[in-house]
């Protein structure tokens, strides 16, 4: 029996300062992978101390040799990677995103994960001026318009789709990446690397809508197809 595609979902750190800190994976994210016929596993940070970066645009590859080897050994078990949404970001997420970029490993960055894949290759973010309009709901909030020449367009085959919106930051500069979909306020809802198998960041949360919206599920299907090509060694 052929092995199923394996997707590593990078666990998010939950800095609670209670003495019982946690890393977590959202149910919706892992279920989107299982429901589309692949296997989801968790990718865990390997260092004792978590380096919470917040909205800082500067990160550093500060792991020890052993910590980095253990982290990347987890990535190497997978055919693709998902960086989750959330309010916090940590250095290990940027390290993973940069490794995926350098090694052409399919990666999908969701919300804060979009920030991470941009910052991993020198990008920056900024706080939006109207967060009350965009930090609203896991259900539909606004349209985005998609560049028909983009790789993302090939996933949904539409120039305009409805998305949800739960964010207070947006992408500013993103060298090596292209902004390919925008909301009416001009914020970039989708970024991608044209020369990579699948290096895509979305500002919205497709995991919350994929069960009822084929556009959202096409994002996961396209990602998993790229993972399957990697598994088979097809470029």
What does this structure look like?
The protein has 235 residues and is of the alpha/beta class. The protein is 29% helix and 27% strand. It is built from seven helices and 13 strands. The strands form three sheets. A nine-stranded mixed sheet has the order 4-1-5-6-13-12-11-8-9, with helices on both faces. The chain has a two-stranded antiparallel ribbon with strand order 2-3. Helix 3 (91-102) crosses helix 4. It is globular.
Topology:
Blueprint: E1 6-10, E2 12-14, E3 22-24, H1 27-35, E4 39-43, H2 65-75, E5 80-83, H3 91-102, E6 107-110, H4 112-119, E7 125-127, H5 131-134, E8 135-146, H6 151-156, E9 160-166, E10 169-171, E11 178-182, E12 188-192, E13 199-202, H7 214-231
Helix pairs in contact: 3-4
């Amino acid at each position: 029996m052929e092995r199923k595609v394996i997707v590593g979902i990078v666990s998010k750190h939950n800095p609670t300062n209670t003495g019982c800190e946690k890393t977590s994976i959202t149910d919706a994210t892992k279920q989107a992978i299982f429901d589309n016929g692949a296997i989801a596993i968790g990718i865990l940070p390997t260092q004792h101390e978590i380096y919470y970066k917040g909205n800082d645009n500067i990160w550093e590859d500060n792991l020890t040799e052993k910590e980095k080897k253990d982290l990347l050994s987890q990535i190497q078990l997978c055919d693709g990677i998902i960086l989750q949404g959330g309010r916090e970001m940590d250095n290990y997420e940027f390290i993973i995103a940069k490794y995926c970029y350098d090694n052409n490993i399919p990666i999908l960055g969701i919300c804060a994960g979009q920030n991470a894949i941009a910052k991993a290759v020198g990008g920056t973010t900024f706080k939006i001026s109207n967060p009350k309009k965009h930090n609203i709901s896991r259900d539909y909030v606004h349209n985005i318009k998609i560049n028909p020449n983009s790789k993302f367009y090939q996933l949904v085959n539409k120039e305009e789709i409805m998305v949800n919106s739960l964010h207070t930051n947006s992408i500013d500069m993103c060298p090596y990446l292209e902004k390919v979909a925008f909301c009416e306020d001009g914020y970039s809802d989708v970024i991608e690397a044209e020369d990579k198998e699948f290096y895509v960041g979305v500002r919205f949360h497709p995991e919350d809508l994929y069960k009822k919206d084929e556009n959202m599920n096409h994002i996961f299907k396209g990602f998993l197809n790229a993972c399957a090509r990697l598994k088979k060694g097809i470029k």
